Amino acid sequence: MPRRHGKKYLEALKKIDRQRLYTPEEAIKLLKETSFTTFDPTVEVHLRLGIDPRHADQTIRTTVSLPHGTGKTVRVLVFAQGEAAQAAREAGADFVGADDLIARIDKENFFDFDIAIATPDMMGKVGRIGRKLGPRGLMPNPKSGTVVQPEDLPRTIREVRGGRVEFRNDKTGLLHVAVGKLSFNEPQIYENIAALMEAVKAARPAAAKGTYIRSVTFTSTMSPGIRVDPSAAQAMKPAV
Description:
Elements: H1 7-13, H2 24-34, E1 42-49, E2 61-65, E3 76-79, H3 83-90, E4 95-97, H4 99-108, E5 115-118, H5 123-126, H6 130-133, H7 153-162, E6 164-168, E7 174-181, H8 186-202, E8 213-220, E9 226-228, H9 230-234
Parallel strand pairs: 3-4, 3-5
Antiparallel strand pairs: 1-7, 1-8, 2-6, 8-9
């Protein structure tokens, strides 16, 4: 059954030329003009990539530090023990522990956190609850920068609290990345998206052939998507 949209969505859609590829600046301005929610919506970027996600050497999983953050409070859990655990607490982690946290997640289904970080010596134990963390995208992984040496814990915790986000392609080769809130001003949204585009370009797999970034769409929660010229999106430059 085709999806039915409400009157406000259809009114917003009238403001967008579906046949046109907008510049990033035009699209960001339109995001502001077409939002109709009563809450502060999340701004998202959707990219179709020229990769074959069936092949491991063409998958993308990396992170980007958004210069203006995500606009949301990030709850951080750290699997660590001894001095590393103390360093994590001092750095402001919301939950810190070892066997106790693992048991809480395993037996009580505790998932009241947004990101999990672990020191390498904990990964053998954390792996036992991978079946619970993995499907929720919470399993620490070196590729996403969430398995770190004890001395790097304070910096990593600051980064994830300050706007570092992980992104990975889905099984169809698409990327869906939240880049902040619509209440951010236009330059802030632009700079966050520019940082994402730089990270996506840097993550291009060597095995990917042909056009890498095939389509770019900006949108916000519940609002219509706005198609952006892929060349213009790739030319976006983060603030120096």
